[in-house]
Design a protein that fits this description.
The complex is a heterodimer of chains A (about 270) and B (about 425).
Chain A lengths: L6 E12 L6 E12 L3 E6 L5 H9 L6 E6 L2 E2 L5 H10 E4 L3 H4 L6 H11 L7 H14 L4 H4 L9 H15 L3 E5 L7 H18 L2 E6 L2 H7 L2 E6 L2 E7 H6 L4 H9 L13
Parallel strand pairs in A: 3-8, 3-9, 6-7, 7-8
Antiparallel strand pairs in A: 1-2, 1-4, 4-5, 9-10
Helix pairs in contact in A: 4-7, 5-7, 7-8
Chain B lengths: L1 H7 L3 H23 L17 E4 L1 H5 L4 E2 L5 H9 L2 H13 L12 H11 L11 H19 L3 E6 L6 E7 L3 E2 L8 E4 L10 H37 L1 H16 L2 H12 L6 H11 L2 H15 L2 H8 L4 H37 L12 H10 L2 H4 L6 H25 L6
The chains are: A alpha/beta (about 270), B mainly alpha (about 425).
């Protein structure tokens, strides 16, 4: 695979093992990857294939058992809290379940305020902060005035996930890790949210690592697709390459599992 | 948050428990305002005086009487004189004298006395009756007749020089004094204990001390449990192993045995109520640690905690805002249970004589201990231990009821 853009995030032999003895499970098994700047990468796999574990390692939320992750061609060093905090200015995430992503005890405006503070805006006047939050909210079609003083459970799932995107808008990270951000949301909101993600990418030019189980969706939105099975990448390449001309058996199966409209659905492979 | 509190106060179980406890606390604070004085003051020289109002006989004699003729005064005097044994004995005589057994009702004093005066004959010798028994009937009859005579009682004063008795007053059977005119009257709703102390006053003071012991012990246990549980659960690693090891160590040794050993080690003189409370707190934190730890472990991998980390929050802030509020409900419930357990632990410890030292403050356990040492339960002095039991039961009941109410609010899917 050739790509002229500089490397953003890459990994060599990245492995994660949980437990030991008879309970030892290898969640991610020696994977190599290269994500370039400004790329829209999809990681596709079934539940339990190790996608979320990989994303947590990339985010620095859990330690790597073996192997090395490189950030901008330098080995990733997140050994201290301070270094982690610096790293998290460059990489951010949107999680799968919007209902569990929020602290139910704090109001939603604090989520946005924290982002401004993280970008060094702690000493800005309140009016400026509100202006920034209003701008971020209007980017995702939310009205900030309606959100103030509300608790997360007073919002709908779509609103919560859009607020997550507003958060990314304020933080402007270099990399966004979206872990199935649309799987818990109804079909109408899904398109809106994907649309917003694309807009955001154009706006701030970040790399998006999109984790999904939906190969059709991956084909529709991504530049590069990685197919993951049992903690290993079985196939990767540009979206057209992988999906229109799949080589791995697993990829073929994934593609045949996608229901096709106007066609007989082959259930024999399911 | 506001919503949860509203919900809690709409839970009937919590409300019932809370009202009982609040009423008790109210009494604890209001009663000493009206009845002042040291609760450990020994007012009685005889022990275990029955509950009731005590009027000074000396003062009553010296009070100007009013004359009243109450309709059943004599009968009541007689009834008071006749013990249950006397009545049974009278019935035996009457049966021997040929009265059908079914006609004799020993609870009806009037009818019994009428039958008695009609049928009793001192010279009769019913078959099989010993001399001693006949004499007993003679004495009984003489007693009854004397009680009905209505002669005046003479009160006399001894002249200290000559030793002569000077009659100073006659007390007639129709003399009555108003208790308000008698200068020395004491009301003992729960009587006195073995030391002659007012049980009610002592009980109020003891309940206050016991609740304080419960609060101190509960706070200490909850604080230790919460801190160790949070550290072990959130930080994990070797700290988790260490804390878990210590916790397991404390769990496998029965807490009560440890409590006994520590209390004994401290020594009788140094064991104040506060010391005992601290010792109870230091031995009862293990279950809080274990449950807080397991809850924190499940919480620390949740997305909202991850998001908080990604937002660059410090460890202290994550624990304070993303972990603590989620386990707060559990901690409050554990705290309430710890209070109730600590009060019971103090009672147990005092029962075997290892409670707070006896000369300073009464506690519920100490009152039980005293009642037991002086055999109140075998002699039927119920007022010395039954009210104490009731208070212990009521505190425990109300706290547990509050706990169940909270459980229903916080875990609505677990219970009905």
């Amino acid at each position: 695979m050739s790509n002229s853009k500089p490397l953003c995030l890459s990994g060599k032999g990245v492995t994660k093992v949980f437990g030991f003895g008879s309970k030892r499970t290898v969640a991610v098994d020696h994977v190599d990857f290269e994500f370039h700047e400004g790329e829209f990468v999809s990681i596709v796999g079934e539940s339990g294939s190790g996608k979320t574990t990989l994303s947590k390692m990339l985010l620095g939320l859990i330690n790597v058992t073996d192997g090395q992750i490189f950030f901008q061609d330098k080995p990733l060093d997140i050994s201290t809290r301070k270094k982690k905090k610096e790293y998290w200015k460059d990489i951010q995430a949107i999680f799968q379940d919007p209902f569990s992503s929020y602290n139910v005890f704090s109001k939603v405006d604090t989520v946005l305020l924290d982002c401004i503070h993280m970008r060094g805006g702690k000493h800005l006047p309140m009016e400026k902060k509100i202006e920034m939050m209003t701008e971020a909210c209007s980017f995702v079609n939310l009205k900030f005035a309606e959100l103030t003083n509300k608790y997360p459970f007073e919002l709908s799932g779509g609103q919560m996930q859009r607020l997550m995107i507003a958060r990314i808008f304020l933080l402007k990270p270099k990399i966004l890790l979206a872990d199935e951000p649309t799987s818990m949301i109804d079909a109408c909101s899904r398109a809106t949210i994907l649309d917003m993600l694309m807009n955001l990418r154009n706006e701030i030019g970040m790399t998006i690592i999109f984790i999904t189980h939906d190969i059709g969706l991956a084909y529709y939105i991504s530049d590069t697709v990685y197919i993951m099975e049992h903690g290993k990448f079985v196939e990767y390449g540009s979206a057209d390459e992988v999906i229109l001309n799949p080589k791995a058996e697993y990829t073929k199966r994934l593609i045949s599992d996608v229901p096709k409209i106007y066609e007989e659905w082959d259930l024999s492979t399911v | 948050m506001k919503n949860t509190i509203r919900q809690i106060f709409h839970s009937p179980k919590f409300l019932a428990g809370f009202s009982i406890l609040a009423a008790m606390l109210l009494v604890l604070f209001i009663y000493p305002l009206f009845v002042t004085g040291n609760p450990l003051q020994m007012i009685g020289l005889s022990s275990f005086s029955k509950p009731g109002t005590y009027v000074s006989v000396y003062d009553a004699i010296n009070t100007t009487p009013d004359i009243m003729k109450l309709p059943h005064a004599d009968e009541k005097r007689l009834a008071a004189k006749l013990s249950d044994d006397d009545r049974i004995a009278m019935k035996e005589w009457l049966v021997a004298a040929g009265i059908p057994e079914a006609d004799i009702d020993i609870t009806d004093t009037d009818a019994l006395l009428e039958l008695w005066s009609d049928n009793y004959d001192p010279s009769a010798k019913p078959a099989g009756m010993t001399m001693a028994k006949r004499n007993y009937y003679k004495r009984l009859n003489a007693n009854l007749e004397a009680a009905l005579k209505g002669t005046e009682v003479v009160v006399s004063e001894e002249d200290p020089e000559t030793g002569e008795l000077n009659q100073i007053k006659f007390v007639k059977d129709t003399d009555y004094v108003n208790t308000k005119d008698v200068v020395n009257v004491i009301n003992l709703p729960l009587g006195t204990d073995n030391f002659g102390r007012d049980v009610l006053k002592e009980l109020v003071s003891a309940t206050k001390t016991s609740i304080m012991i419960g609060l101190i012990a509960g706070t200490i246990a909850t604080l230790i449990g919460l801190t160790t549980g949070l550290l072990a659960g959130y930080l994990g690693g070797w700290l988790d192993d260490l804390i878990l090891f210590i916790t397991n160590l404390f769990t496998v040794i029965p807490g009560f045995i440890m409590l006994i050993l520590i209390s004994y080690g401290i020594g009788q003189d140094k064991r104040g109520a506060t010391t005992v409370a601290i010792v109870i707190g230091l031995t009862s934190w293990t279950w809080t640690t274990r449950s807080v730890r397991s809850q924190v472990i499940s919480l620390r991998n949740r997305d909202h905690v991850n998001l908080s980390k990604l937002s660059g929050h410090s460890l202290a802030r994550i624990i304070a805002t993303d972990i603590l509020p989620y386990i707060a409900s559990y901690v409050v419930m554990a705290f309430i249970l710890q209070i109730s357990t600590a009060i019971l632990a103090e009672a147990q410890l005092s029962m075997i004589g290892l409670g707070p030292k006896t000369s300073e403050v009464p506690t519920l356990g100490l009152m039980m201990n005293w009642a037991m040492l002086y055999s109140a339960h075998t002699h039927g002095y119920w007022w010395a231990y039954f009210p104490v039991l009731m208070v212990i039961a009521l505190i425990s009941f109300s706290l547990n009821l509050m706990n169940t109410g909270l459980d229903q609010v916080f875990n609505p899917t677990l219970r009905d």
